[in-house]
Design brief:
TIM Barrel; 12 helices; disordered N terminus; 2 domains; 10-stranded mixed beta sheet; single chain; binds iron/sulfur cluster; alpha/beta
């Protein structure tokens, strides 16, 4: 049972606003600005009755709705239980306080190495490149993250890059956020130009949901930047359901593959979104058809406001075993959980 109690408002943790779009800005930035931000508009677009949807204005105030219109177009009209809609609609269940769900579910604060730099595992450092995202996922484990203070870009990346350069054990940098591709390409190029002077770096990893939720972000400038990077690149997309893919996403992913990047998918196991063998198998098969290898299936990080998405561990293990019995091994992602203080993701 989940005891009902109001979710505390934390306006200081709301992610950074979308920047203004300059004249002549890339198309993806205009599409970003045109994202749906009003839950009632979203429901109206899908022909759904807002009064029956359990919308929470308090949850929307704490973590606003944001969803690109192209992603909305992949939702099924008339279905309140649509797996894509469930990922973005602020609902009453987010207001419940549940024991064991906190503000920093995975120990980001304890793993801080410098402003905007998090190191949890040997050899890898994560850069919080920005607090902005094109979509706001209700299950996000960083929905309470203090982006205003913890963004690596703040001083022209200098402190963050210096912290990485000073540690000879770090040979892989992970661009995360927020969504790093929400930064304009010249800003990304500014960062990687500085990182290129760090001799111990061997790999770059990019975690981004943008190729799926706003595939127009994969434009000529981005591809040129990626192609010119001096390291092998692992590009981790975050898709949770097969319906998130369409022809525009396939084209974006094919273009990313064309830069030589290795594409991987990391999904979160979510109640009401992908908590069935059929949904997980379809996700793996659809990812692979788009040239993306299933990598991780994450148990939910226990952050306040997301408890209604949780699938118990026993059920998660049973789903994973059934998936392994159905699919070829390379289509079966590792089922893992992040535990503060561990030396890597913990297999379930
Ligand atoms: S794109 Fe990633 S960081 Fe942004 S809201 Fe979704 S899960 Fe969180």
């Amino acid at each position: 049972m989940i005891p009902a109690a109001p979710l505390p408002m934390q306006p200081d943790t709301v992610p950074a606003p979308v920047p203004a779009v300059a004249a002549g800005a890339p198309r993806w930035q205009r599409l970003w600005r045109e994202a749906v931000r009003d839950p009632r508009e979203l429901l109206a677009l899908l022909g759904l009755d807002a009064a029956a949807a359990g919308i929470s204005d308090a949850a929307a105030a704490q973590f606003p709705l944001r969803v690109p219109r192209g992603f909305v177009a992949r939702m099924r009209a008339g279905h309140l239980d649509d797996p894509l809609l469930r990922q973005v609609l602020p609902v009453d269940a987010e207001e419940r306080i549940v024991s064991g769900f906190g503000l920093d579910a995975v120990g980001d604060g304890a793993a801080k190495k410098a402003d905007g730099v998090i190191q949890k595992y040997r050899g890898r450092a994560l850069l919080v490149a920005t607090g902005s995202c094109a979509v706001h996922c209700r299950y996000c484990f960083r929905r309470h993250f203090p982006y205003a203070e913890e963004t690596a870009a703040r001083d022209g990346w200098r402190e963050a890059v210096a912290a990485i350069a000073a540690d000879p054990d770090i040979d892989e940098v992970i661009l995360s956020g927020g969504d790093p591709l929400s930064l304009a390409t010249p800003k990304l190029a500014e960062l990687t130009a500085l990182l290129a002077d760090v001799p111990q770096l061997k790999r770059l990893r990019i975690h981004s949901r943008l190729p799926v939720v706003l595939p127009e972000r994969v434009d000529a400038g981005l591809l040129q930047w990626l192609s010119a990077l001096p390291w092998p690149v692992a590009f981790v997309i975050h898709a949770n359901h097969a319906n998130e893919f369409d022809a525009s996403v396939d084209a974006a992913l094919a273009a990313l593959r064309g830069t030589g990047a290795q594409l991987l998918n990391q999904a979160v196991l979510l109640r009401g979104v992908n908590d069935s063998v059929d949904a997980l198998a379809a996700l793996s098969e659809r990812s692979f058809a788009a040239g993306v290898l299933p990598y991780y299936l994450h148990q939910l990080d226990r952050v306040e406001g997301v408890a209604h998405f949780e699938v118990p561990d026993d059920e998660a293990r049973a789903l994973h075993a059934a998936l392994a019995a159905r699919l070829s091994g390379y289509l079966v992602p590792k089922l893992v959980r992040e535990v503060q203080g561990d030396t890597g993701k913990r297999p379930l």
